[in-house]
């Protein structure tokens, strides 16, 4: 039997005032634990985006007609609300699972020795993005699935994915100054690729907001754009992203770039081809729900691949990790 350590009154007060520091003093996670925590946070972010898409595609967007409670009388879904109520309420509950995953990532990053402030900050950025998106999701319900708020909800999730990918990548790196692996011209090309990808995703939300899947069987307003026109614009932007990716791969091969950027660019190109195939099939088959959901998942995967290309352009060797002052640490843990 392992003896249980005595917890004094001072320990209890310390745990209440600064719980992260209290845990960090008594536990040091392995590097792979920190890495896995960041990956779980990223996976849960993608999961909640996909389940949010399922809410829309099953017409359950107003399954819980109000927020923060499910109905005016009940905090949870009731039997009378049926399938749609359980679908919408289940998606809301996944927010707590995502918060737990992000919280675990923050705890492991804070408890690492030596403590890495950059990882902890990225974890807190994820936390506040989750909180902001939860509030925005409530607003989406309160305004009756206004398509512009739905689009903003998805774009904020895209920002959350970007931060989660960055944290996951940083767990695999040191804390030294970033050293570029490619020239300035190549880096500029990648930034053009990132900008085009952001525009592609943004226009994709307009396609959805103008299309037939409104998210509920009731009368839900749609964006005032011609769906055929914005779909064609979305396709043109997709081909621009594909072209930029192929051009980047060609340039990286020509300059004999390191394998990291080259392999990440190859992965992105293949993912884009698969995503494009799904997009064209769903377009010519009148947008079946399964393919639309798969396309939403593909959008997350494409964005992750784009971020991995961007982050592969530099390396961070091992260096002295930042250890914040007691005051700064107290401010972080009191959030």
**Please, what is the average pLDDT?**
87
Strand content: under 5%
Neighbour order of strands in the largest sheet:
1-2
* Bulk shape: flat
Main sheet specs:
2 strands, antiparallel
Spatial gap, N to C terminus: 37 Å
Explain how this protein is built.
Helix content is 70%, strand content 1%. The protein is flat and about 55 Å long. The chain is mainly α. Helix 8 packs antiparallel against helix 9 and helix 9 (259-284) packs antiparallel against helix 10. It starts with 8 loop residues before the first helix and ends with a helix. It has helices spanning 9-17, 19-26, 31-57, 82-111, 117-142, 147-170, 184-210, 227-254, 259-284, 289-311, 326-333, and strands at residues 179-180, 314-315. It has eleven helices and two strands. It has a two-stranded antiparallel ribbon. The longest helix has 30 residues, at 82-111.
Question: How is this structure best summarized?
Answer:
This protein is mainly alpha-helical and 335 residues long.
SSE topology:
Blueprint: H1 9-17, H2 19-26, H3 31-57, H4 82-111, H5 117-142, H6 147-170, E1 179-180, H7 184-210, H8 227-254, H9 259-284, H10 289-311, E2 314-315, H11 326-333
Antiparallel strand pairs: 1-2
């Amino acid at each position: 039997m392992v003896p249980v350590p005595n917890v004094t009154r001072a320990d209890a007060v310390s745990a209440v005032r600064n719980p992260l520091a209290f845990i960090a003093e008594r536990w040091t996670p392995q590097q792979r634990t920190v890495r896995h925590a960041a990956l779980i946070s990223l996976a849960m972010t993608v999961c909640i985006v996909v389940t949010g898409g399922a809410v829309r595609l099953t017409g359950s967007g107003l399954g819980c007609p109000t927020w923060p409670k499910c109905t005016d009388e009940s905090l949870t879904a009731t039997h009378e609300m049926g399938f749609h109520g359980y679908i919408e309420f289940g998606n809301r509950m996944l927010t707590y699972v995502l918060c737990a995953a992000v919280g675990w990532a923050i705890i492991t990053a804070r408890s690492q020795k030596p403590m890495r402030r950059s990882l902890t900050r990225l974890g807190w950025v994820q936390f506040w993005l989750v909180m902001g998106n939860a509030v925005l999701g409530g607003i989406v319900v309160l305004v009756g699935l206004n398509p512009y708020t739905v689009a903003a909800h998805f774009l904020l999730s895209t920002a959350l994915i970007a931060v989660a990918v960055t944290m996951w990548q940083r767990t695999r790196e040191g804390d030294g100054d970033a050293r570029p692996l490619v020239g300035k011209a190549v880096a500029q090309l990648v930034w053009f690729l990132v900008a085009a990808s952001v525009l592609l995703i943004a226009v994709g939300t307009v396609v959805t907001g103008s299309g037939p899947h409104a998210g509920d069987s009731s009368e839900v307003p749609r964006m005032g754009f011609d769906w055929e026109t914005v779909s064609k614009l979305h396709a043109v932007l997709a081909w621009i992203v594909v072209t930029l990716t192929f051009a980047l791969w060609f340039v990286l091969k020509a300059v004999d770039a390191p394998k990291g950027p080259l392999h990440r660019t190859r992965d992105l190109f293949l993912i884009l081809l698969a995503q494009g195939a799904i997009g064209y099939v769903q377009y010519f088959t009148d947008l079946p729900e399964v393919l639309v959901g798969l396309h939403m998942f593909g959008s997350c995967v494409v964005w992750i691949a784009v971020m991995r290309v961007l982050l592969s352009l530099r390396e961070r060797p091992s260096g002295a990790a930042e250890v914040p002052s007691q005051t700064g640490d107290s401010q972080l843990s009191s959030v």
